[in-house]
Specification:
This protein has 10 helices and 8 strands. The protein is an alpha/beta fold. The radius of gyration is 17 Å and the shape is globular. It binds 2-phosphoglycolic acid (PGA).
């Protein structure tokens, strides 16, 4: 495994002025990070962020991509379009997309395929609801979500990033305990290994109320290879302190 990977997911936050000051503060605080770093920004700000991040240690990412290649899909953004802005990463299957935009496992798998075909790394998100966890279905749900992506993209598994984000922990302030997260990460690693024999090359990130106070403990788990950070990535000092806690 290379260095750990810390990814900021800005979600639908930001403005031209706020983005500039956040990125400048991050770059000023990050000289030689011990981890890889990326920011997944709203699509309208890709050009601005590409310019601000040029020649820096921070990679650029988007938050979604169309499952279609081109054509009559009003409002959609294709992988080829994203790639023109020098993107390295694109989130696919974030729970907010699955939940509010009815993205099925098959659609998420197709989006990962589009990203890979254009030379970008999909960050595939999986995770259970609190009802599913309480019903003892966590394993079944995350395995089903990952299986769809493996089925469509098995030969490219080592080129993906996986993110385990329990839905009950996203934006709620309730983080999975390091043990709860590690348990699911180990399951996902085993599933990747069974499919590819290359599971040790895949970063498996944890996401869900990760912050400056809990990052070090989560990142110390053997199968947690980094973080997908929402709210805390919008505060430069918090995100910098999380990156500093990476060993
Ligand atoms: P959060 O979001 O860190 O604000 O919980 C994480 C995510 O949704 O990627």
């Amino acid at each position: 495994m290379n260095k750990k990977l810390m990814v900021g997911n800005w979600k639908m936050n930001g403005s031209l002025a706020a983005n500039e000051s956040l990125i400048k503060a991050l770059l000023a605080g990050l000289s030689a990070p011990a981890c890889q770093v990326a920011l997944c920004v709203p699509a309208v700000y890709l050009a601005q962020c590409q310019a601000l991040l040029a020649d820096s240690v921070i990679e650029l990412g988007a938050q979604d991509v169309s499952e279609h290649e081109t054509g009559a899909f009003t409002g959609e953004i294709s992988a080829a379009m994203l790639r023109e802005f020098g993107l390295r990463y694109v989130l696919v299957g974030h729970s907010e997309r699955r939940q509010y935009h009815s993205e099925s496992d098959a659609v998420v798998a197709a989006k990962a395929q589009r990203a890979l075909a254009c030379g970008m790394t999909p960050i595939v998100c999986v995770g259970e609801t609190s009802a599913e966890r309480e019903a003892g279905q966590t394993e079944e749900v995350v395995k089903r979500q990952l299986a769809a992506v493996i089925h469509a993209n098995g030969h490219c598994i080592s080129e993906m990033v996986l993110a385990y984000e329990p839905i009950w922990a996203i934006g709620t302030g309730k983080t999975a305990s390091p043990e709860q997260a590690q348990q699911v990460h180990a399951l996902l690693r085993a599933q990747l290994e069974a499919a590819s024999k290359q599971a040790d090359r895949v970063h498996i990130l944890y996401g869900g109320s990760m912050n400056a106070a809990n990052a070090a403990q989560l990142l110390a788990q053997p199968d947690i290879d980094g973080g997908l950070v929402g709210g805390a990535s919008l505060k430069a000092l918090d995100f910098l302190s999380m990156m500093a806690s990476v060993r």
